[in-house]
């Protein structure tokens, strides 16, 4: 074990000397490894960051949650021209599901509408996301209130002019003040503030709930009407714990089909989008992105491997005399082999560490310029970068190391002289 540690130490010294004595040649040789590792880890970090933000945006919803709409959240075999003819889900269908669907924990009718400005006296919060929902949504997403309450069933059904503010909206309208009980203006009407959401921080799709407000869906339905194609109605459904998922979806689809009078041979003119299926779809997409990125980055590593091999062949030639002397003094072939292998690995790892450092710097800068979107450089990615560098060094150095270990000591000394 001690001899291998000594070989490692000597190899490290040789690698450092190669960097010092032939800076330009060595750096050009390492450039391929640096670029390759940079490309691979940058792709992995970017995809991991994107996946983390998307799943973080969905983390407040249970994985069993389902969303019924006329749109599919993933790939579908239904042609686009046919999907465009699908009708929107209706408030009446939501009521029927709430009353009659077995094993249902909660169902909420949600109306996605354009962002609007909200005013309070001379203060205005622009581009506010309007979450028009029925009262059950509070339990489905498990929203956290800093103060006040969510609207109840009676307020939801009659479309009471009440509103729950996100943290950023409250800060814009009431800087340093208490919003509870105040009346803000939305859609040209006055809504009473009855609740304030806890600060959540921004996500991939904007400010999250911090830049949103929640209002009873029926209050917004009066403004937009029930048949506006400019809105995006959906029914958010959460089954009870432990329910058989396939059976629950089958019962849900059959109930909607019965309400719409669909014949047996007709396809569903709606989609039951399962959140678990959506996250699986995200995993599939990010996996494909990783694979494509790794293939492209592999070419850079291939060039880097040739660079390491080249510098190792040059190193063998420059140290032929030294190799002959070592072998004449009793150094075994494996000692010479490991000496050059370790040197190749150390050089490759140095190039990889430079690549990792560049990824780290760029991730910090990117996080600064993209607000609260955080680029993740995980310890696992760092390990992958270092391990790949070592493997590239090992593969690139194996042929030069073998050629060095097989040199005849007399011929090596004579060649060196």
UniProtKB/TrEMBL annotation:
One CC-aspect GO term: plasma membrane
TM region positions: 27-47, 291-314, 335-362, 382-404
Keyword Glycosyltransferase tagged: no
MacB-like periplasmic core domain segment(s): 26-254
Gene Ontology molecular function terms on file: transmembrane transporter activity
This protein's record includes keyword Transmembrane helix: yes
Location relative to the cell: Cell membrane
Main location: membrane
UniProt superkingdom: Bacteria
Keyword vocabulary terms for this entry: Cell membrane, Membrane, Transmembrane, Transmembrane helix
Protein name from the UniProt record: Putative ABC transport system permease protein
Species annotation: Salinimicrobium catena
